Amino acid sequence: MPIAASISSKISTPHLEVQGDCILSGELKVSGAKNSALVLMAASLLTEEKLQLQNVPELTDIDVMGNILLTMGVKLKQWKDEMHIDASELHHVELPYELVHGLRASFFCIGPLLARLGQAKIPLPGGCEIGARPVLEHIRGLKALGAFINVEHGVVTASVPGTQKRLKGAEIVLDCPSVGATETILMAAVLAEGHSSIENAAQEPEVQDLSKLLNSMGAKISGAGGPKITIEGVKHLHGCDYKVIPDRIEAGTFLIAAAITRSNLSVAPVIPEHLNSLLQKLRDCGCTLEINKESIHINPGEIKGIDITTQPFPGFPTDLQAPFMALMTTAKGTSVITEKIYENRMKHVAELQRMGASIRVQGNTAVIEGVPQLSAAPVHGGDLRSTAAMVLASLSARGNSQVEGLNHLDRGYASLEEKLNSAGAHIIRH
């Protein structure tokens, strides 16, 4: 390839130009939780009545899920952060591969489709390439509720036997506290006949949010947020008006942005208890926090190296591992970060090393020796959270960096550069 053509190709790649040595100030606004909004959209399939969702983030993943619902005969209207969903004419039970392939959350539709129509046909999902995220637990749970399920050529075909096409309540014990499996089983069980329980259930705030929505629609769920959830099946659910919780991962990313740039900053709205594990680690590494009902003010001191291990909620979230590693590259001393959730979630290490970070990796553990300052470089995010980590690292680095991977970033952060620029950053999208 001629040199000119190579350069032209490089320049045309969408990227953010991030000015380093940044100091942030003011308040960063947190959008609604992506991982909650996606599953709440799937839950709309459980009723013939209208569901109105508020605080829905404007993200490409939300757009894809909306298009998936439209292909099934659902009527959907959205303006700004409000969404009205009408699934009264739900008729299509087969999801299109071209949409499902890029969005793992699309698999959430299988539970509502089985519960309401008695059948579903869904290709195995895609999403970020951060390791194996099998749907085996989902399938085991649905089978326990009485569904017939066949997986062949990458497509899951499911049906409910009998003339009534109604699932039966069951006691289900998960092998691991999978968020997706817990949510899938919850949505299937709310319309099942009789009593169901989920033991070793995921305790994440997004599971609690789904349960609150379903209860607002007439479901009978108790125990969400704990290791055992119980469900008394009902025959019908109705519509409601519901507000999505703030995105704890976006809030955490903003708090880490303040820490890595050594900036005084407020982050709102938040639900502080959703962030307890991160808040403790920020205190441990040298930050002072002022926590109010719906906001957090952070004042970083000298940042020192500390150790973290990712765990299911209420432990340290895997989605903040990459941003926190970026922070630790600039800390005083040594830190050790161990990834226990996904096996391929260290892709950002090589990119941070390009910026002068001192990191060595052994399996799923990274040992970081802090350096005084990172140096600007062209970097690429290989998944959603690693791209966010590159933006944070670039804010603190010496010089101007180019961050690629915006197709990942736009899946999970609404108007990230606009929000950061409002707080004093200088970021240009090309």
What is the topological layout?
Blueprint: H1 3-12, E1 15-19, E2 27-29, H2 34-43, E3 50-54, H3 60-71, E4 75-79, E5 82-86, H4 97-100, H5 110-117, E6 119-123, H6 136-144, E7 148-152, E8 155-159, E9 171-173, H7 179-189, E10 195-199, H8 205-216, E11 220-222, E12 228-232, E13 240-243, H9 248-260, E14 265-268, H10 276-284, E15 287-291, E16 296-300, E17 308-309, H11 321-328, E18 334-338, H12 348-354, E19 358-362, E20 365-369, E21 378-380, H13 384-396, E22 400-404, H14 406-412, H15 416-422, E23 427-429
Parallel strand pairs: 2-14, 3-13, 9-10, 17-18, 21-22
Antiparallel strand pairs: 1-22, 1-23, 3-5, 4-5, 6-8, 7-8, 10-12, 11-12, 14-16, 15-16, 18-20, 19-20
Helix pairs in contact: 2-3, 2-8, 5-7, 6-7, 7-8, 9-11, 9-13, 11-13, 13-14
